Amino acid sequence: MILAISFLEAPIKFRAPGITVPLGVGIGRLVFRALNACEAVLALGVAIALAVGPHRPVTVVLFVLAALDLLACVTLRRVMDRRVIGESATHAISEEMPKHNLHVAYIGVEVVKVGLLIALGVTALS
């Protein structure tokens, strides 16, 4: 899900005919909110499975992954949401809306999450 949404859907949607920056940003906010909700549910399922199963060493990777996800969801995404809401309240989001370092940080977190998910899978299988 992370690969499909973060690295495919997010950049490609702005290339679709008729998609403006404000529309793309609005769609992105909804999509990432849904992704974060799915991640939370799946993390809870994995945590329960690890609690009752024999895979104790992977709990460290799971907790790091959950903490990183919480960081991204609670801090970065909310700050980015407030920035967009503030931008649209003061004046319309323009096609030239400046890029912000928060997006680079969020992409970095997503890359690390993918690496941790791979580590989680490898650790769980060994």
Verbal overview:
- The chain crosses the membrane at residues 30-52, 58-76, 104-125.
- Keywords: Membrane, Transmembrane, Transmembrane helix.
- It is elongated, with a radius of gyration of 17 Å.
- It has helices spanning 2-13, 21-52, 58-90, 101-125.
- The protein contains four helices and no strands.
- Helices cover 81% and strands 0% of the residues.
- Helix 1 packs antiparallel against helix 2 (21-52), helix 2 runs antiparallel to helix 3 (58-90) and helix 3 (58-90) runs antiparallel to helix 4.
- By secondary structure, the protein is an all-alpha fold.
- It has one domain (2-125).
- The model has no long low-confidence stretch (mean pLDDT 78).
- The two termini are 24 Å apart.
Question: How would you describe this structure in keywords?
Answer:
126 residues; mainly alpha; 4 helices; 81% helix
Write the layout of secondary structure elements.
Layout: H1 2-13, H2 21-52, H3 58-90, H4 101-125
Strand content: under 5%
Number of strands: 0
What class, by secondary structure content?
mainly alpha
**What is the alpha-carbon Rg in Å?**
17 Å
H/I helix tally: 4
Tally of discrete structural domains = 1
Mean pLDDT: 78
Brief account:
This protein is mainly alpha-helical. Helices cover 81% and strands 0% of the residues. It is elongated.
